[in-house]
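User: Structure with cytidine-5'-monophosphate, C-alpha cells only please.
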Amino acid sequence: GGEGPLSGLTAIVTSGPTHEAIDPVRYIANRSSGRQGHAIAAALAGLGANTLLVTGPVSQPDPAGVRVAKVETAEEMLRACQEGLPADILVCAAAVADWRVAKTAGQKIKKEDGGKLPVLSLTTNPDILATLSKPGRKRPRLVIGFAAETENLEANARSKRERKGCDWILANDVSDTNGIFGGAENEILVIDTAGQESWPRMDKQAVAQRLAQRVAQHFANRKKR
Ligand code: C5P
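Assistant:
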C-alpha cells in the first residue's frame, strides 16, 4: 500500500470470470471482461490500500501497484481470497460460474461416441461473496458486491444485499442492450444499510474511482466515531 486515505488498510478484489472445466479442452464460464474489477483494484491501491486482486482468466493487463493471484475456478478463487484474509475491504466483482461439472472428464470427450450426446451433470459452486460475508472473526469490515439485474433493480438488489450478507451492493441495470457487459460504461445504484444513491452513467474507471472515494469516506467516518 502507498500513501493516501486508505493507507494502512488492506483490500481484496475479485475480478473476471471463472472457468469450470468440462474436460481438458472445454469449460463453462460467464461473460466477463474483468474491466470493472481490475479498475476497482487499481483505484483502491491508488488511494493507498494494500490490495490483492484475485482474478479469473482475462485479457486485461495486471494493474500496477496491486498483488495479483490468478485462478481458474470458483473454488480456487474462494481459496485465494481466504488465503488473503484478514482484510479490511472485500469487493466481489467477479462473474463467478454458479455451477461446475460434477465429474470433470480426464480425457477430451469424443464427439464420435456412437452419436450419443454427452450429458453434463452439474453441482453448485461456492458463493464467494456470501461465504466471506458470514459474521466471524475474519469477516472483512466492509464487504461490497455487485448485482446485475434485468428488472426491479432496487428491490432485487436490496434483497440480494440481505441474502448475501454484504454491506453494499452496486446494482447495475443490464436489461437493455446498453453494452454494459464487456463495454466501457456502467450505470450504478448503490444500496447500503442506510439507503441508496444513484450514480450517473460513467465509464468503469470512473465507477472505480467513485467507489474507492466512497470507501475512503466510510473509513474516515468510522475513525471519527
Ligand atoms: O447471485 P449473483 O451472481 O447475482 O450475485 C452477484 C454478486 O455475487 C457479485 O458480487 C459476484 O461477484 C458475487 N458472487 C460470488 N460468488 C458466486 C456468485 C456470485 O462471489 N458464486
